[in-house]
Amino acid sequence: MIEENQEEAGACFLSRHPVFDKTKKVHAYEVVARSVLVSDDPSHVDVDAFSWMVSDGAGELQLLLEDSERLMIFVPDPMLDAPEVHLLPMDYCELVVSPQETERGNLEELLAFYQDYGYSLALRFAGSCQEHGHLLKYASTVILDLATLTPMELAKERKFLKGFKVRAMLDHVDSWEAFAGSKALGFDLFQGAFFGRPEVVKGKKLSANSLTRMELMGKLLDENSSYKDMAAIIAKDPLLSYRLLKYVNSPGVGLGRTVSSIEHAVAILGDTAFKHWAMMALVASLDATAKGEELAYLSLHRASFLEKMAGRAKASPVPPKTMFLLGLFSLLDAMLGQPMAELVASMPMDPRIKAALSGERNSLGPWLDLVNCVDQNRWCDVGVILSEQKVSHIGAARDYLEASRWARECFRSGLKDKLVEAPGHKQADQAG
User: Fold this and answer.
1) CATH architecture entry for 208-430
2) Does the pLDDT value for residue 431 go beyond 70?
3) Which domain of life does this protein belong to (predicted)?
4) Where do the domains of the chain lie?
5) pLDDT of residue 130
């Protein structure tokens, strides 16, 4: 019984959510720990998750710091005066506090203490922040919620914040139109689902590199294509060849020998394994921007997570390898700035994947809903979907964490190198 209770105590989803600046570069990651256990007391759930994150999950936080110089971490009200908070490194962690969710009389005293101690503070508000103006002197960042404010109210809040030395951040920015509008109002930081949606520009066409990679993607999906067909197309793209060979030769892959060419890689790995790795390298190279790098990581994370879910679910609609492709391709439209239906129309893939990616509701729809809900912090919906699909909540949380480690390891192995590292490649070729 004790072991079972310990297992449940660590049953938490740990997810990272990028915070972008005006140039669409990642400023920080907000890290969310959420218990998968059902509880009538949401604050109790958050307390359990927070305690797990700063203790057993500390190693994961350290790994996240290798991806970003700053983490934003929400501190539940019951934990504000708890010693566990001091386990968070003050040089890299910005504490997120919600003044509207507390009834404690010593909040200002606690904020002053953390500021004097050396922590940066972000104050999050679900509505207006003006009633709490006396607390803003302790904040480095003020977070407002686009979902709870009208455009007129938002403009008034931004004007009010100009009287303080704070970064103005907006949450629930879920469209590119909302991003443009809030940027025009003078907001500095943005979080929400917008970056995972296609930024479609009328008249914009795919670049030559993107067209080549879409052609290769079709070859990789075609079960009748030979390695010679694939090698010929990959040879046209020095950057992709470089990344793929570097990844295949990395210690994480563990081949134990040097692979010197694409043909050599296929001979050692076999067609199936080669296609698997080539597909990952291909998706990771579709968008060379900072936003694209985040989308590439998220695509790999989704692919691995859904693959694990297919193996865990009692009645998965498709095999694990098919579920992997569903996750891997789920953000193609955001990477390429084109409608998903147009991108997958001519691809030789499972019709069920094509339909689900294009927005049709079928047996794969709930699985796409699942990854979207995790990305958007819709935890009640996550629990409902897992229960409907008869998947262990604790197992899903573990799989999600393992998938994030795997995706991170793929990047470290060279799957997503900086453009300047590829010999003979000009960054301008990746534009568009």
Assistant:
1) Orthogonal Bundle (1.10)
2) no
3) Bacteria
4) 2-196, 208-430
5) 96
